[in-house]
Amino acid sequence: MFAAQIKADYDDQGYTLIRSFFSPTEVHKILKNLERVIDEHRTTMGDRAFYEDKDQAHTLKQIQRLFEIDPYFDDLFFRSRFAELAEFLLGESAKAVNMQFFNKPPGAGLPTPPHQDGFYFKLNPCRALTMWFALDFADAQNGCVRYVSGSQTGGMRSHNSTGVLGFSQGLAEFPAAGDEENEVSFEVQPGDLLVHDALTVHWAEGNGSATRSRKALGFIYYGESAKLDKEAAEEYQKKLYSDLKEAGRL
Ligand SMILES: O=C(O)CCC(=O)C(=O)O
Predict the structure, then answer these.
(1) Domain regions of the chain by residue span
(2) Please, which pLDDT band fits residue 248 given cuts at 50, 70 and 90?
(3) What is the pLDDT of residue 244?
(4) What gap in Å lies between CA 247 and CA 172, rounded to an integer?
């Protein structure tokens, strides 16, 4: 079972940090499977894979829906300690929605714009969380995740298009009053886990290291009480489409 303090921190701050959620041996196994999947599926991942530069394989920055590609990741997403933790933190049954690979390659990883994940999810009520599982050592130099502590209590903020592949929406105004005072970030080791509420403001700098990658897995779970706001979702899709078209990306 998980310690009550983990949930108390999550409820209070909008994020929680669990050190050594997985052991070095378990992390090694995940990395080996990731390498294998990227190798086996490099040419067949289609629109699941995003690159900083699509002509340069080493600039792979995201893979969406990893669980659809390979049974090892299906298990890790649906039948794992991650899934159990999601229910513990949400306080209700959880629906596993997306599992992503996030990378900031050395010398090529761009910043993650400040955003709230719930803006993408379009849920009402917005009961959902994201787990960010470190596969590399991450710090200020290679783009560790940063939060505005307590921002999950301030509701949904306005977002605009960012033009950033994989993070198309970012806060229209940032930092807002109080954000800088409440900024927190953590140096993490492979196997450490951060979890944040879908309303928690977060972002990351680019990778300023020429040698160190910044690899992570993202896990998204919705609470069973969260319902898709169909109207908002349709409106969002329309806007996304027209923005992409205007930018010449379609
Ligand atoms: O990996 C990153 O830089 C940010 C990931 C993120 O925004 C998320 O997990 O919601």
Answers:
(1) 4-246
(2) low
(3) 62
(4) 18
Q: How far is the CA of 203 from the centre of ligand 1 (A)?
A: 7
User: H helices of the chain, where?
Assistant: 4-13, 24-41, 66-69, 71-78, 81-90, 117-121, 230-246
Which pLDDT score is estimated for 18?
98
Q: Which atom of ligand 1 is nearest to the CA of 102?
A: 1
Model pLDDT for residues 206-227, shown as the tens digit of each residue: 999 999 999 999 999 999 999 9
What distance in angstroms lies between residue 112's CA and the mean position of ligand 1's atoms? 7
Name the amino acid, one letter, at 49.
A
Whether 233 contacts 211, CB under 8 Å: no
Instruction: Tell me the pairing of strands 94-104 and 60-63.
Output: antiparallel
**CATH no. for 4-246:** 2.60.120.620
